[in-house]
Structure formats: structure tokens, C-alpha cells
Amino acid sequence: MTRFRQFVATEYAQGRTIRALAALTGRSYGTVRSALVTEGVALRSRGLRAREAAGDPQREELAVLLLSLRLSAGLTGREAGERAGMSQSKVSKLETGRLAPKPEDVARLADAYRVPPDVRGRMTALAAEAPARKRRRPVLLRTRACHSPRVARAEQAATAVRVLSLGRLPDPDAYRGRLSLLVPERAAWPGLPPGTGVIPCAVPLPDTGFRVLDDRVVVVELLSGDVVLTDPDDVRAHVERFEELRARAQVSR
Q: Measuring CA to CA, how many Å separate 177 from each of 159, 160, 173, 174, 241?
């Protein structure tokens, strides 16, 4: 086992990912990750975990610490869960940072691993500092979002509506004085509202059109219906994309 840990630690340091090492060695993702932690390797974050860890270093540190303590105690995830009175799945989610830690869960694991007071204090402090970041899930409306009372109310209350239209055009009268409209050059047919931004063909476009309501709600147009986004990060990303496109658009008269 020592040779395996040394191998994955060396390969990981040279840039291989945990998933790639799992495929290479025929071991599970968790086995490779545990081997790296046992060797004292500082793990890189990637994908969604990287974005979460960037604003939540305490949660990331605690996840690695919990895994390290369990391995030092010589317990499997199932055994740790039995001692702490929680499921193996919950132990795994805490060790990977997928679940926000609660102080009481951390205290039960500290008892199960029989950690010294200074380590327990660090675990408790990290659990208290780590925020439970909850992303707001997108909502798929099989019909158009305009048929949703919630979205309809948001549209009526919005003081600014940004629309990137790749197909159907919004009714300018419905957003009188509030509409900022962008269309691709191929869709710049006569009768566009004055002030519409026409995006040149050379400018790459998103795969779908969308509208942003007051920096609070985004409605993304799909063939099967509309997706409603309210997570601040999602809304911010769409606002930034809209503004980038508007800066490169030509204003119609």
C-alpha cells in the first residue's frame, strides 16, 4: 500500500487528477483521495468545488481534516458512521465538502476519532466559520415562463429588462421604457424597436436567448420550455455576458 500511495502522490504532483489516477490504477476515487491525504499531499480543488472553496476555505480545510482523522483512526467510512451515529454517506459528504458541516456532527466525529482537545477545538472552530452555501436550483417550466405567476410578477415589477433574443422577439409595449434588446445580425429584420443592439455575425453568441429582470431573475429560452434562474452567481454571469455583447453591438435607428 505504501508503494501505491507514493505512486499516486508522485503522479498527482506532476499534474494528474484524482479521477485520472483512479482510472489508471483501477482504484476508486475515494481510495486515491485517501491515499493522497495519508501522504500529506495538499489537494487541488477543481470544478464546482474550486468555486465553492474559493469563498469557503474553512469548509475545504475541515473536509480534508475529517478524512485525515478517520484514516489515522483506522476506520472505514461505515465504521466511523456507526460510531458517530450517522450514515456512511453523510461521513463521505462531510469529507468531500459536499455537505456543510454542523458543529454537532463535528463533535460526534471528534468523539468517534478520540481526537485531542486542540484538534477538537480546531474542528469546532472550522465548523462554526464554514457557511452553508446553498445554491438556488434552476426551475424548468415546460411552458413559457410568461405563464408563471412568479415570473409574471417579476416582469411587471422590473425597472430594467435585458433581452438577448435569438428567435422570438419580445413585445416592446410590454416593457415600455424598460427594455434593452440585443439581436444577432441575421435576425435584424425591419421593424426592430429603436435602440436595439445588432450583434455582428463575427461575434460568438450563446446557444440560447435569455432575459434578465432587474439583476434578480434570468429566464433562459429552451425548446422544451424556459429555465428560471435566481442564484446571484447565475444572474451575474448573464448580466456580464449581456453587457459584453452590448458593447460589441451596433445600435439600430
A: 9, 8, 9, 9, 22
Alpha helices in 145-230 (DSSP H): 149-157
Taking only the tens place, the pLDDT of each residue in 166-189 is: 877 777 777 778 889 999 988 767
Q: How far apart are CA 107 and CA 111, in angstroms?
A: 6
Residues 6+ away with beta carbon under 8 Å from 14: none
* Other CB atoms within 10 A of residue 66 CB: 26
Pair 58, 69: CB distance under 8 Å: no
Q: Give me Rg for the CA atoms of the chain.
A: 25
Over the stretch 34-55, which tens digit does the pLDDT of each residue have? 888 888 888 876 544 444 444 4
